[in-house]
Design goal:
- By secondary structure, the chain is α+β, with helices and mostly antiparallel strands.
- It has two domains: 234 residues, Endonuclease/exonuclease/phosphatase (Deoxyribonuclease I, Chain A), CATH 3.60.10.10; 48 residues.
- The chain is built from six helices and 15 strands.
- It has a seven-stranded mixed β-sheet. Strands 6-7-8-9-13-10 form a six-stranded mixed β-sheet.
- A hairpin with a 4-residue loop joins β1 and β2.
- α2 runs parallel beside α3 and α4 runs antiparallel to α5.
- The radius of gyration is 25 Å and the shape is elongated.
């Protein structure tokens, strides 16, 4: 599973999307055909799978509600490829989700996948930010000699054949392997806890590599897979901006106005503030002064509504999640 957070600083908003794989084998979705599914939590899952009845391979992309609104188009290619294009106030973003054949697959299977991927990349607009994300089953290795413009110095392990193919793909399509440019180790860990590799990757167009703020493995995420959650943060407008300490939306508890004593206190305080506003020599603009009076009065007399958690997961499910997490911790301590 891979997650991407795209900050659009011009519009002060963020899009969230994930390359997902519900099965225990990383990025395989294993669903048949293709389509989209709206989940109970409001997110939308786009998926592309086989059409021959075999539950193998398959890719998917999960979109938050804001990302769904920004979606321009998406297209399933095969059970190993799909893409989606998103609109922002600055630039369009093309995201290609992949599940590459393993290193042991036949040359014909690998070549077919590479040709299809090259065609999809070539079909994107040259000015878009292009992100290619997924399980490439490719070990790029730690040696970046002759490939400094493609990968950084933070790779791990030894390069395999799929790794060579990945570097060739990046070379032809002007892409950079973002996970190797940051010191956090992006790893796949084998079930026996002995083998560690970088086989999940997020690639970005070279001209936009400075917009990548971070790519890291989130080891604490419990996703039921031998792969680690890979998270990438992308900034699409490089400019100074004001950091907001609290981004949660606060709503005044207006139901309290139904109580006579609260309604009376609200009315008196608001009246007093209006009188004080008239007496000020250095007055604020009319609308700003009125807005300030209402906000300060509501804060003092009404306070804010408490935000409860949406019950889309039952208490019984949370207990099972906790039990699984505890079992995983005990297993890790023994190994």
């Amino acid at each position: 599973m891979l997650g991407i957070i795209v900050e659009d600083l011009g519009a002060a908003r963020a899009l969230e999307m994930q390359c997902v794989g519900p099965s225990a084998r990383g990025h395989e979705v294993r669903w048949l055909d293709s389509g989209q599914l709206t989940l109970q939590n409001g997110k939308v899952l786009l998926y592309s799978g086989r059409n021959d009845g075999l539950h193998q391979a398959g890719v998917g992309m999960m979109l938050a509600s804001r990302a769904k609104k920004a979606l321009i188009e998406w297209k399933p290619i095969t059970e190993r490829l799909m893409y989606a294009i998103f609109h922002t106030s600055i630039i369009k973003i093309s995201i290609i989700t992949v599940y590459a054949p393993s290193n042991d697959a036949t040359d014909e299977t690998k070549e077919s996948f590479i040709e299809q991927l090259d065609r999809v990349i070539a079909g994107t607009h040259k000015h878009d930010i292009i992100l290619v994300i997924g399980d490439f089953n490719a070990k790029g290795g730690m040696n970046n000699e002759d490939y400094e413009n493609i990968m950084g110095r933070h790779g791990i392990g030894r390069r395999n054949e799929n790794g060579e193919n990945l570097l060739d793909i990046c070379q032809r399509n002007n892409l950079v392997i973002t996970g190797t440019t940051f010191p956090q180790k992006v790893k796949w860990i084998s079930p026996n806890k002995k083998t560690e590799n970088q086989i999940d990757h997020i690639l970005v167009t070279r001209q936009h590599r400075t917009s990548i703020l971070d790519t890291r493995a989130m080891r604490g995420a419990d996703i039921g897979s031998d792969h680690k959650l890979l998270k990438c943060k992308l900034r699409i407008k490089l400019k100074k901006y004001k950091i907001v300490t609290d981004t949660s939306r606060k709503i005044f508890d207006t139901t309290k106005l139904q109580r006579p004593e609260i309604r009376k206190a609200f009315s008196i305080e608001l009246k007093n503030r209006f009188q004080l506003l008239d007496q000020l020599e250095d007055r604020e603009p009319f609308w700003e002064g009125i807005t300030k009076c209402y906000k300060e009065t509501a804060t003092n007399t009404l306070s804010f509504k408490e935000r409860g958690q949406k019950p889309w997961i039952s208490n019984e499910s949370w207990k099972l999640v906790d039990e699984r997490r505890q079992l995983k911790e005990r297993t890790n301590k023994k190994s």
